[in-house]
Design a protein that fits this description.
The chain is mainly α and 346 residues long. Helices cover 60% and strands 3% of the residues. The protein has two domains: 46 residues, no CATH class; 210 residues, MetI-like (MetI-like fold, Orthogonal Bundle), CATH 1.10.3720.10. Strands 2-1-3 form a three-stranded antiparallel beta sheet, with no helix packed on it. A hairpin with a 2-residue loop joins strand 1 and strand 2. The longest helix has 37 residues.
Length: 346
């Protein structure tokens, strides 16, 4: 497996050495490709799991239901419904349809089974939940919400933590002392309990509000490491040269010091993503996460607790999905951390 394309954009010798060390870890490379595949699968979920054809030919016309919403009148259908039931269309006489691999929407119930939840079958490969919805479809779309939540929390919390840590480390003195005491006070707050309380007060938080609530607490850890990097680098010669040249503090901080302080951000990011995915699953399991009927791994595990004696598939497949995702991110994090560890430099 060649990575020469990436190396063409790397100019720093130390960065090239770290990249070569990272790609030398077979475990990390495999985990990275699997994670990228899962990410691609979630972004393009409509092409893999949907109750609409990707493309179809019906009565001499071409349609693209995944991309375009059609009214029944657009297909010359006489019905009182405002939506097209594509599975009931007759393609045998004139036309054809290219269906996704899984012909179920994450919100659609299978009315053909005898009871809910139903075991794995030819129609529902991983079974259905207690409302007859396809588990595989909800796992695919659930990963989209999980990784989307984790990425947004990571971005907002790391932006906030990096900025505050940079200010504290660069300023030093009384500002740093007072700020650190405030951060330590915030760190003692049981944020999971507070997060549950906030969600309960607003009567169920939408996706974006959960991201905001979570970001307000996740910035603390990264701020410690960025502060330490700035405390170490602010006394270096290149910073003194910048000051002599009359550069403003913000320019010195974010143009010259920050690029040399990215190691904590890069090494802790995979673990931060894993922690956010775990926390969202915990909140969903407790009933304080994503609002129903949003596809959620934690919500499936909550159903598994209620139906464990009769529906083993509700516990097995969501647990495997969650466990596999966390293991993959952990392998990636270990590889990145080893690549940036000077004690293990070859």
């Amino acid at each position: 497996m060649r990575f020469s394309v990436v190396e063409r954009f790397l100019k720093n010798t130390e960065t090239i050495k770290r990249w070569k060390k990272l790609k030398s870890s077979r475990k990390t490379v495999i985990a990275g490709w699997i994670f990228l595949f899962f990410l691609f699968l979630s972004v393009t979920a409509e092409f893999w799991s949907n109750n609409k054809p990707i493309v179809m030919s019906y009565q001499g016309s071409w349609y693209f239901p995944v991309f375009v919403h059609y009214h029944p009148s657009d297909l010359n259908l006489k019905t009182d419904l405002n939506v097209v039931e594509y599975k009931s269309l007759d393609f045998s006489k004139s036309g054809w349809a290219l269906w996704p691999l899984v012909k179920w929407d994450p919100f659609e119930s299978n009315t053909q089974v005898e009871h809910y939840p139903s075991p794995p079958s030819g129609n529902n490969w991983l079974g259905t939940d207690d409302r007859g919805r396809d588990i595989l479809s909800r796992l695919i779309y659930g990963f989209r919400y999980s990784i989307g939540f984790a990425l947004m929390v990571w971005f907002l919390s790391y932006i906030l933590g990096t900025f505050l840590g940079a200010v504290m480390g660069f300023a030093g003195g009384w500002l740093d002392l007072i700020s650190q005491r405030c951060v330590e006070i915030m760190e003692t707050i049981p944020f999971l309990l507070l997060l549950i309380t906030l969600v309960d007060l607003v009567g169920g938080a939408p996706f974006w509000l959960l991201v905001v609530f979570m970001s307000c607490f996740r910035w603390i850890n990264i701020s410690y490491y960025i502060r330490a990097e700035f405390l170490k680098l602010r006394k270096r010669e290149f910073v003194d040269v910048c000051r002599v040249q009359g550069m403003k503090p913000l320019r010195i901080m974010f143009k010259h010091i920050l690029p040399n302080s990215l190691t904590p951000i890069l090494t802790f990011s995979p673990f931060s993503l894993a922690a956010s995915i775990s926390l969202l699953a915990i909140l969903d399991y407790l009933g304080f996460g994503l609002m129903p009927p949003t596809p959620s791994w934690g919500e499936l595990l909550l159903q598994a607790e209620k139906h464990f004696t009769v529906a083993w598939w509700l516990a097995l497949f969501p647990s495997l999905a969650l466990f596999g995702t966390l293991v993959i991110l952990t392998f990636i994090g270990d590889g990145v951390r080893n690549a940036f560890d000077p004690r293990k430099a070859s």
